[in-house]
Amino acid sequence: MLWPDKVTICEVGLRDGLQNEKVLLSIDEKLELLDMVVASGIKIIEVGSFVHPKAIPQMADTEKLIQRMKKVDGVEYRALVPNLKGLERAHAAGLTKAKLTLSVSESHCINNFNQTPLEMMAGFIPCVEYAAKHNLSLSGALSSAWGCSFEGRIPAAQIEKIVREYLKLGITELSLSDATGMANPRQVYEVGSYMVKTFPEVKWILHFHNTRDMALSNILAGIQAGITIFDGAFAGLGGCPYIPDATGNVPTEDVIHMLHEMNINTGVDLSKAIATARRAKEMVGHEVASYVLKAGRCEDLTNIKAQRQNNR
Amino acid sequence: MLWPDKVTICEVGLRDGLQNEKVLLSIDEKLELLDMVVASGIKIIEVGSFVHPKAIPQMADTEKLIQRMKKVDGVEYRALVPNLKGLERAHAAGLTKAKLTLSVSESHCINNFNQTPLEMMAGFIPCVEYAAKHNLSLSGALSSAWGCSFEGRIPAAQIEKIVREYLKLGITELSLSDATGMANPRQVYEVGSYMVKTFPEVKWILHFHNTRDMALSNILAGIQAGITIFDGAFAGLGGCPYIPDATGNVPTEDVIHMLHEMNINTGVDLSKAIATARRAKEMVGHEVASYVLKAGRCEDLTNIKAQRQNNR
C-alpha cells in the first residue's frame, strides 16, 4: 500500500456543509468558522457558492462573506459557480479562484440544471474566457462521478468523457464528487488509478460523503490510486439531497485524525480542526456525525488513562 | 490492491454487542436474533461468554441460550471463555467451540484480570488439555492488539510474543482485537502483513470497533494484508469501556454492504442482515450507529428514484 508523506485537505464545510443546514448562519458566524479553519492550517477553503439565493438561501451571503473575510497569504479561497454570472459575481467580490460544476450523470444533470452535461460544458466556455481575461483560476467538479441516484453506478468511460471536455477548456484541476455516498473503495481505486494514469496532467481532488460509512475507506483507496487531495467538512456537516437525516460530508477532523495516525502529514493542527468542528456543531445546534469530536483522538484516551493511573 | 472473491463475516453482536447494553435482553429475544443471523447466511456466530455474571450480567444466560438454541449444520457457534471453568460450562451446555481471550497489553491485562498476559496464558494450558479430551476446538483472542488505553500503540513484537505462546499451545485460530478503536489502516496493513507472512499456519480473524470511524478502512487494509475473516456486530452494538456513548463494534451490515459493493462475496443476504440490525435496534431501544440501516443500500437509492421517475 502507498503511504505518501503529505496529503492535502480542502475544507468545504462553509459551502457543502452549511448549504444543507436548516439554520442560516450569520456572516459573523461564518467568519468565525473561517478564521478557525485558517488557524488550523488548512490551505484550501471553499467559502460559498454563487447559485440562485432562492435555490440555496444558505449561500445567499457568499458575496458579502468574501468581501468581509481577511485573505491570508498562502490560503486558497474558492467558491462554487454554476455559470458566467456566478463567476462574475465571485470576481467582483474579490475571489481569484472558482470551481465550476456539472453532473456526470445525464439524468441528474437534466433533473437539476435542465441541461445535459455537454450543454452545461458549452456554458463554461464564456467562463474560461472571462477567467483568462481577469486572471482567475478555475477548477472543475464532476458531481455524481461515483454514483447517481437516477443512473446507479457511473461507468468510467462516462467520467472520462467529461474529463476530456474539461481538458479541452484548459481546466486541469478536477474534482470527482460523491454527494450521495455511493462510491466504494474498489471503484475508487480502479477508476482513480485509471484516471491518474490516463490524465497525468490533471490535479485530482476527491470529494466523499459518508452516507454509508465508506468515505474514509474511499480516501484510503484514493491514496492507493495516487491521489493526495481530499475534501472534508467540519463536523461532517451536509447531508444527502435524497435521504433525510443521512450523514453528510466526511468530517474533516476524522480524515485528519486517520491520516495523522497513519503518520501522514496534513499540515493541519488536529486539535484546532476539532475545535472548529465543535464550534460548528454549536452553531448548527444539533448532533453531528463526527467521530473524533465524540470519542476524542486515540492519544486522548491513552493520556486520560495515564493521568488516572498517575493520580492513584 | 487485493480483491478476494470471498470474505467471511463472524457475527459477535450477541456477545460483544449486547454485553455493553444497559437493557438485558431475554433469552427469547436473543434466540430471535440468533435465528435471524443464521437465516441471513452467517456461518460463524459468537453467542455469548462464560464470564462471571456479576461482571457482565448481560451474558449470565449464555448457558441457557446455548441449551435452547437450535444448532444448524454448517454454522459454527462459539462462546468466549476466560478460563477452564468457563470452558467446562460451555462444554456442558453443548458447545464445541470456544474462544480464549487475554490482553496483549500488560497494564490492561493486570488491570482487567489481575494477571499478566503470560500468567493468563499459563491458565490456558488446562483449557487446552480439557479441549483435547472433549474434542472441542479453541480459538485465541488477543485483545488490545492494536492499541491500549494504558499503553497506547502496541508494538508488533508484543503481539508476536503472544502469538508464539498461543502457537505453543497448539491454538492456530487467532483474533486480533481492537475494542477501543485505536487501530489505523496503515498499522493494520503493516502488522497484518507481517503476521500473515511470519505465521502462515494461523487462521487470522480481525475484530474492529468503529470508535473513530476507521473500522471499514481497517478491514480494507486487513484484506490487503491477506486476511479474509472479520468480526462485526448487528447494528454496530457495543461500545468502548472507557468512552461513554462511543460507537461500538463495526456494524455487520455496513461491512457486508461495502464488500458487496466491491463485488466481494460474503455468502450473506444483506437485506436479512439489515433486518437483523433493525430488530436488534428495536430490542435495545435506542439509536444505533449503523449506516445502511439509516441510509439504505446504494441500490435502494437508485431503485427509489427509478420508481419515482417511472411513476411520473
What does it look like?
The structure is a homodimer of 312-residue chains. Chain A has 312 residues and is α/β, with parallel strands linked by helices. Chain A has one domain: Aldolase class I (TIM Barrel, Alpha-Beta Barrel). The first copy, chain A, is 46% helix and 15% strand. Chain A contains 13 helices and 8 strands. In chain A, strands 7-6-5-4-3-2-1-8 form an 8-stranded parallel β-sheet. In chain A, α7 links the parallel β5 and β6. The radius of gyration of chain A is 19 Å and the shape is globular. The N and C termini of chain A lie far apart (43 Å).
Brief write-up:
With 312 residues, the first copy, chain A, is of the alpha/beta class.
Q: Tell me the overall shape of chain A.
A: globular
What's the helix count of chain A?
A: 13
Tell me the β content of chain A: 5-15%
Question: Into how many domains do the coordinates of chain A divide?
Answer: 1
Which secondary-structure class do the elements of chain A indicate? Answer: alpha/beta
The major sheet of chain A is characterized as: 8 strands, parallel
Question: Which helices and strands occur, and which strands form pairs?
Answer:
2 copies of one chain form a homodimer.
Chain A: E1 8-11, H1 13-17, H2 27-40, E2 44-49, H3 62-68, E3 76-81, H4 84-93, E4 97-103, H5 106-113, H6 117-134, E5 137-143, H7 156-168, E6 173-178, H8 185-198, E7 203-208, H9 215-224, E8 229-232, H10 252-261, H11 270-284, H12 292-295, H13 298-311
Parallel strand pairs in A: 1-2, 1-8, 2-3, 3-4, 4-5, 5-6, 6-7
Helix pairs in contact in A: 2-11, 3-4, 4-6, 8-9, 10-11
